[in-house]
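Before the break, one more example. Copy the sequence into your notebook; we will annotate it together after we see the structure.
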Amino acid sequence: WPGLLQRFREAYPLVSVRLVAFQQGEPLPDAVAEGVLDVAVTLCAGECPSSDFQSVTLCQVPLMAAMGEAHPLAGRAAVTPAELARERLLVPQARGSVGFPALMTELFHSCRVSPAITYTGERMEEALLRVQLDDQVALIPRCYFPDIPQAGLHAAQVSGTTGLFRLTALARGNSTNPAVSLFLRLCRAEVKRQRMEQLSSPE
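Here is what the structure looks like once it is written out:
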């Protein structure tokens, strides 16, 4: 989805787009609701956005387990919640994300395990450094994990978490900005295009 904004600019060159920088993990839905942003592409978890918003689900985002390369599970492409229950878990969470602990509790309780989890508001880079120094395992949505391989780190997908998070385009439900409608329309078209590609691609 990195090219979504570029495709929007190509399709609607007369629309002026201004990007607003936010720190990673800040609650973007609040900024949309308060009118600071017209639209945001953000991570949603748990229940769907309320009727106060217009939203388009772009893709599902799995949960990743980040660990040091010397960790016993580091050679795995995927790990189960039951395997992680024996580890010291670190979960970075966005400021104001009161539902995130409940989401983790639900995930592990469904496997009948109750691991010890530390929730932190520190930056992702700091959390990944703690993983390397303290032999902890950090649980991070895939879209927050660095695209460039990090020295000394390994990430494995947590089994059964593909639908736990959703990358979502979000706008106010009562927005009268025509550019917002155009952007959401492009998002829906892109979702449809990718689904058609998946259906037509060979197994």
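The mean pLDDT is 83. Strands lie at 39-45, 53-61, 63-68, 78-79, 89-92, 117-120, 137-141, 153-158, 165-172. Try to locate both features in your own notes.
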